[in-house]
Amino acid sequence: MTVKTPSQSSSLDDWLCYLEGVHPANIEMGLERVKHVAERTQLHNTPSKIILIGGTNGKGTTARCLESLLLAQGHSVGTYASPHLVRYNERVRINGAQLGDQDHVDAFHMLEQGRGETQLTYFEYGTLGALAIFKRYAVDFILLEVGLGGRFDATNIVTPYASVITTIDLDHKEYLGDTRELVGYDKAGIFRAATPAIVGDLDIPHTVTDYGNEINADMVLANRDFSHTVTEQGFKWHYQNYCYEFATPAIPMQNVATALTTLAKLELLPSEQLIRSCLSQLQVEGRFQQLSESPKVYTDVAHNPESARYLRQKLASFKERGFKIHALIAMLADKEKANVIQEVSDVIDVWSCASLHGPRAEQAKNLQALVVQHTQTECLGYDNVTVALDNIIATQNDDTVLIIFGSFLTVADAIKYWQK
């Protein structure tokens, strides 16, 4: 069957449908194809300073923090993030704002005209499309979130001004390996010789530093070169001659510390007062995002053990204030579902499960079985997040906090529900 190629006057939805089907695989590791197309379309070099941001968790919040602090100083910034929650346009921001559909259509059309016979995956189209948009807008800085791993991810074709690794944990084991050492080695592939490489993980695998030393990367490491400590008022960040204390932010302190260290290393750190102002306004969609005050409803993209541990900390603060916690969980089948459930189980009073839909979706009945097995707690199952919320919200009491989590798809469904 021949797939009709969209035109420059086609809709963004038409283009996205085309991109989803034009390559036989959702993921194909390797840089040769995407490098070739980047060179053909003259996207392989850019005057913008690029900060590559890899890690298992925390890429989005670290990027948002960097974006806020750079914009506050008058720099122009392009940010590329994935996946999106509700609309594809969320993936590319210019100076903190999403773009119209035509910007993306124009970029995809240019790539389609220039790729020749080389096939690209959906993510590779998106990455090159973002680079095309950033080149067109001639931004000062590009914040590029790494999609999967690092070494063979499409974003790794660029020459970074600095590379950042937020955290290292087990995820995508079929591609990255089943130990933190293997995952760390893959993520360290975004390092470059004699180039700043900031690592925010609190227990850095030796493979990261081994590789950094091997290529002579200019490494700045958490718990060696910089640190953050929790205080009664919030947290204290320390790096070289900097020692600042800030109120508790809406994103993980560890990621704020990593972002601040990155800018300090690059001699781009704003004043303490400006940092304080930026942090007080910082919010990232889908990261313990409040959807409703009455009833109290939050949603979070936590989908692996590390992110579940952070979510548990946030929920524990409600438990300490006397609230009950009702969890609605919906996940993808290839995630560490049992470990995620176990990480939060001691703060959850009531469980509900929902099915997601799509080729990687997990069914509610399988999640129910895991909840019963690991918590000895019964839970209701629902066909989808919408049906679950219709039932749960109708009977939720004021003394209960509902947390909806387990996947970006789960959060997207929750946000759409509230937008209605």
Overview of this protein structure:
Residues 53-263 form the Mur ligase central domain. Residues 286-407 form the Mur ligase C-terminal domain. This is Dihydrofolate synthase/folylpolyglutamate synthase. Pfam families: Mur_ligase_C, Mur_ligase_M. Helix content is 39%, strand content 19%. The longest helix is centred in the first third of the chain and has 16 residues, at 122-137. The protein folds into 2 domains: 12-281, UDP-N-acetylmuramoyl-L-alanine:D-glutamate ligase; 289-419, Alpha-Beta Complex (Protein-Tyrosine Phosphatase, Chain A). The mean pLDDT is 93. It is built from 15 helices and 17 strands. By secondary structure, it is of the alpha/beta class. The chain has helices at 12-22, 32-40, 59-71, 101-114, 122-137, 173-176, 180-187, 206-215, 253-265, 272-281, 305-320, 337-344, 364-375, 385-393, 408-419; strands at 49-54, 77-80, 92-94, 97-98, 141-145, 162-165, 196-199, 218-221, 226-230, 234-239, 242-247, 289-292, 296-300, 324-329, 350-354, 379-382, 400-405. The two termini are 38 Å apart. The strands form 3 sheets. Strands 4-3-2-5-1-6-7-8 form an 8-stranded mixed β-sheet, with helices on both faces. Strands 12-13-17-14-15-16 form a 6-stranded mixed β-sheet, with helices on both faces.
